[in-house]
Amino acid sequence: MKQKLSVFIEKEVLRLAKRKAGEEGRSLNDLIVEALDLYLRTGATTSEQRKIAAYHLFCQQPMKIAPGQLHYVLDEDTWNR
Questions:
Q1: Looking at per-residue confidence, does 38 or 26 come out higher?
Q2: Angle formed at CA 14 by CA 53 and CA 51, multiple of 5 degrees
Q3: How far apart are CA 39 and CA 27, in angstroms?
Q4: Cα gap 18→29, rounded to integer Å
Q5: What whole-number distance in Å separates Cα of residue 65 and Cα of residue 55?
Q6: What is the pLDDT of residues 34-59, one digit of tens each?
Q7: Banded pLDDT at 26 (limits 50, 70, 90)
Q8: What is the pTM of this model?
Q9: Nearest 5°: phi and psi at 2?
């Protein structure tokens, strides 16, 4: 059963959400419901929490990468020269 809900959202966030919904050809309600559902199902975290988790994952333990993969990364021309 659906239930009506009132929330307060910053003007800029609301403006961006309306734009995104329009670009995708769907209602603002659908966009918000999907975003909330995804957040609850995936356990999404704040940007700061993601940064901390990434730091722990990549900087506080040895990287497990095959020698071939390491050579590929090191040999890659990141400047497109």
A1: 26
A2: 10
A3: 19
A4: 10
A5: 17
A6: 988 887 887 766 777 777 777 777 77
A7: very high
A8: 0.53
A9: -80, 150
- Nearest 5°: CA angle at 35, between 17 and 11? 30
Q: How far is 9 from 6, CA to CA, in rounded Å? A: 10
Please report, as a single letter, which amino acid is at residue 16.
L
Residue with structure tokens 């497990």?
Answer: 64
Dist CA 2 CA 47 (whole Å): 30
Q: Tokens 């333990």 — which residue?
A: 61
Token couple for 24 = 């995708």
Q: Which comes out higher in pLDDT, residue 74 or 58? A: 74
- Amino acid at residue number 58: F
Residue-wise pLDDT tens digits, 5-16 = 999 999 999 999
Q: Which two tokens stand for residue 73?
A: 């990364």
